[in-house]
Design brief:
The chain has one domain. The chain is built from 5 helices and no strands. Helix 2 packs antiparallel against helix 3 and helix 3 runs parallel beside helix 5. It starts with a helix and ends in a 6-residue tail after the last helix. The structure holds fe (ii) ion. Fe (ii) ion (FE2) binds next to helix 4 and helix 5.
């Protein structure tokens, strides 16, 4: 895994950029939670008006596109910063595994969105939002702990 030497090579600007992007990801997740008034109670959409359900379905669809754009750009930036900071990224096993983890996350997020779109189309965006939020939080939490933290040091809480 990456050593302390590499951590210190990360410039303050790069560090700031990565932290800002991670904070933006967290804000997206918060906005997703805020989309549904029933998010915390766990009730479904049948107590909401049709107009409200349609609004939530629309917001969820926008989230799919915006979140995918955001994470693909973030992964590219993070990889560029790592490539720059590591002495020899081509030979670095941690870098290779981290890149693979990003590609896998993108595939998994796309699949989760496909499943969420089905729930949403069935008139229950609330269930779609809850499932999506919990899976993405779990996957990204795991990634931050196992891949980002060894390179970045302890992640700044947002
Ligand atoms: Fe990462």
């Amino acid at each position: 895994m990456v050593g302390q030497d590499q951590v210190s090579i990360l410039s303050p600007d790069d560090r700031h950029r990565i932290d800002a992007e991670h904070a933006r990801l967290e804000q997206f997740m918060q906005d997703l939670r805020d989309t549904c008034v029933n998010f915390l109670t766990g009730t479904d959409c049948f107590g909401c008006t049709r107009a409200q359900v349609a609004t939530c379905q629309g917001r969820l669809t926008s989230f799919f596109y915006d979140f995918l754009d955001l994470i693909s750009e973030h992964f590219e930036n993070e990889e560029a910063i790592m490539r720059h900071a590591l002495l020899d990224s081509d030979e670095d096993e941690y870098f290779r595994l981290h890149q693979e983890a990003h590609a896998r996350l993108l595939r998994e997020v796309r699949e989760l969105m496909r499943q969420a779109a089905v729930f949403s189309a069935q008139g229950n965006p609330s269930e779609a939002i809850r499932r999506l939020e919990s899976k993405i939080s779990e996957m990204f939490g795991h990634h931050a702990h196992h891949f980002d933290a060894p390179f970045l040091g302890p992640l700044h809480p947002h």
